[in-house]
Specification:
Radius of gyration: 13 Å
Distance between the termini: 37 Å
Helix content: under 10%
Number of strands: 11
Structural class: mainly beta
Order of helices and strands: EEEEEEEEEEE
Shape: globular
Strand content: over 45%
């Protein structure tokens, strides 16, 4: 199993970023996928999940601002992040399950 995140960076408050996660080594279309994040000095926080049928769920802290999506033809998971806030600063991880995630991509929201 391999999960490779990309798309992180430095953005100003109110800005947007789109994260991508390239998946391999398993049948992507048949697995629930998600994103989690870890802010400096804090524990891992679940952010969003997407079922195999496309149904989505979000943490209250990102509801209405983030959109999770998947492209089963490309074995890729996405996280569109809009109206970013400084408290969204964290390392973002693509997750297959509670024990399997990628190396993470840093998102920093600062002016």
């Amino acid at each position: 199993v391999q999960l490779v995140e990309s798309g992180g960076g430095l953005v100003q408050p109110g800005g947007s970023l789109r994260l991508s996660c390239a998946a391999s080594g398993f049948t992507f279309s048949k697995r629930v996928m998600g994103w989690s994040r870890q802010a400096p000095g804090k524990g891992l926080e679940w952010v969003s999940g997407i079922n195999i049928d496309g149904a989505t769920t979000y943490a209250d802290s990102v509801q209405g601002r983030f959109v999770i999506a998947r492209d089963n033809a490309k074995d890729t998971l996405y996280l569109q992040m809009n109206n970013l806030k400084p408290e969204d600063t964290a390392v973002y991880y693509c997750a297959l399950d509670s024990n399997t995630r990628g190396q993470g991509t840093q998102v920093t929201v600062a002016s």
